[in-house]
TrEMBL record:
Catalytic activity line of the entry: a 3'-end 3'-phospho-ribonucleotide-RNA + a 5'-end dephospho-ribonucleoside-RNA + GTP = a ribonucleotidyl-ribonucleotide-RNA + GMP + diphosphate
Gene Ontology MF: a single term: RNA ligase (GTP) activity
Alphabetized UniProt keyword annotations: GTP-binding, Ligase, Manganese, Metal-binding, Nucleotide-binding, RNA repair
Known EC number: 6.5.1.8
Cofactor(s) it depends on: Mn(2+)
Keyword Ribonucleoprotein: no
Annotated protein name in UniProt: 3'-phosphate/5'-hydroxy nucleic acid ligase
């Protein structure tokens, strides 16, 4: 489908979904965003839903400003996936051992490695720039510098919430590895530090929503935030790369006779800021729950833990600021999901998937998410499907 244009305050709201299906609070958030003095454009993806400050599934283009709450606390959160030489026929009937091996190797939840991972010991991790990346930690906000050791130990860990590690198969039977994670606690603490600073700035005092407080160009606050923001985005990218390398090593060990080979890893952020140019203007584009889908860009759009996911290639639609959805998108809050569903529902909706089936992950039940097939159908002018995946193992935080 092409987009529907809804009147905004300063800019129109371009929506790749039926506006009538968007909850009232989320629509109000979008109108609030469109009222910002610095707004240059606003695109809404089909997985749109209520978020903190800014709406999840929105692409916010601003001139000379960036909103830290729109980026969110999981700076650089995103996806990675890789196709393997394994096929579905290589997988054992009981996948419990493989799941356990993944969980032993990659800490989940609030877990961390007892010692920082040495990337030189991993088969598939590119170590160029690694030392420089950690040297630049000395330049981040003083408020979080004491977290260096924890940040190093959490490098290569999953986290909780909707983060996951999966073994999937595509329609041809090829096995894929996929994971979803971000910048862990260090990204959260950097985000909260800068959001607190933004709230106190004079130019933000008259905003309709205090969570839309921004930093503006050519100020010390903006320079400090951008430095920390881009470092945290890089942390998230390294975090996924380390996890994927650990994941690949698990698969090598579990399938020694297969001599498993791996294609090039696909990786994409979906909570981040990028400097891009549209209509002759240099803009700061915030994708909050959206991936970049420039012409030829590979991306990953996951569903829920019992449905499936898509590997896509961008079509380069400037009206959407070269973006697409980051997933299926929630249709109910975590608390609402826990009220509506129980463990038996989770067992039924994740039948055939080796995963947790307990009360601790009921809020991630497939029924709490929009149908991924419908979401994909609403963005055929944004991406083309390269592969459709179905998980057989899902590790949750």
């Amino acid at each position: 489908m092409s987009y529907t244009e809804v009147p905004g305050v300063r800019v129109p709201i371009r929506m790749w979904t039926d506006p009538a299906t968007v909850e009232g609070q989320a629509m109000q958030q979008l109108r609030n965003i469109s009222s910002l003095p610095w707004i240059a454009g606003l695109a809404v993806m089909p997985d749109v839903h209520l978020g903190k400050g800014a709406t999840v599934g929105s692409v916010i283009a601003m001139k000379g400003a960036v909103c830290p709450a729109a980026v969110g606390v999981d700076i650089g959160c995103g996806m990675s996936a890789v196709k393997t030489s394994l096929t579905a026929r290589d997988l054992p009937d009981n996948l419990g051992r493989l799941r356990s091996a993944i969980e032993r190797t990659i800490p989940v939840g609030r877990g961390l490695h007892s010692d920082p991972v040495d990337p030189r010991k991993l088969h598939a991790f590119p170590t160029s720039g690694w030392d420089d990346f950690w040297t630049r930690f000395d330049g981040v906000a003083d408020a979080v510098k004491w977290r260096r050791e924890r940040a190093m130990q959490q490098m290569g860990t999953l986290g909780s919430g909707n983060h996951f590690i999966e073994v999937c198969t595509d329609k041809s039977g090829a096995v894929w590895l996929m994971l979803h994670s971000g910048s862990r606690n260090i990204g959260k603490e950097l985000a909260e530090h800068h959001m607190g600073i933004a709230h106190g700035l004079p130019h933000n005092q008259g905003l309709v929503d205090r969570d839309l407080a921004v930093f503006i160009a050519d100020t010390p606050q903006m320079r400090a935030y951008r430095e920390d923001l881009f470092w945290a985005q890089e942390y998230a990218k390294h975090n996924r790369a380390v996890m994927m390398a650990l994941f690949q090593d698990v698969v090598r060990k579990e399938f020694p006779k297969a001599k498993v080979a791996f294609d090039q890893v696909i990786s994409c952020h979906h909570n981040y800021v990028s400097e891009e140019r549209y209509d002759g203007q240099d803009l700061l584009v915030t994708r909050k729950g959206a991936i970049r889908a420039g012409s030829g860009d590979f991306g990953i759009i996951p569903g829920s833990m019992g449905t499936g996911s898509y590997i896509v290639k961008g079509l380069g639609n400037d009206s959407a600021f070269n973006s697409a959805s980051h997933g299926a998108g929630r249709k109910m809050s975590r608390s609402a999901a826990k009220r509506k569903f129980g463990v038996r529902d989770l067992e039924e909706q994740t039948r055939g998937v080796e995963c947790r089936k307990d009360s601790g992950v009921v809020d991630e039940i497939p029924g709490a998410y929009k149908p991924i097939e419908k979401v994909m159908a609403q963005q055929t002018d944004l991406v083309e499907v390269v592969a459709q995946l179905k998980q057989v193992v899902c590790v949750k935080g």
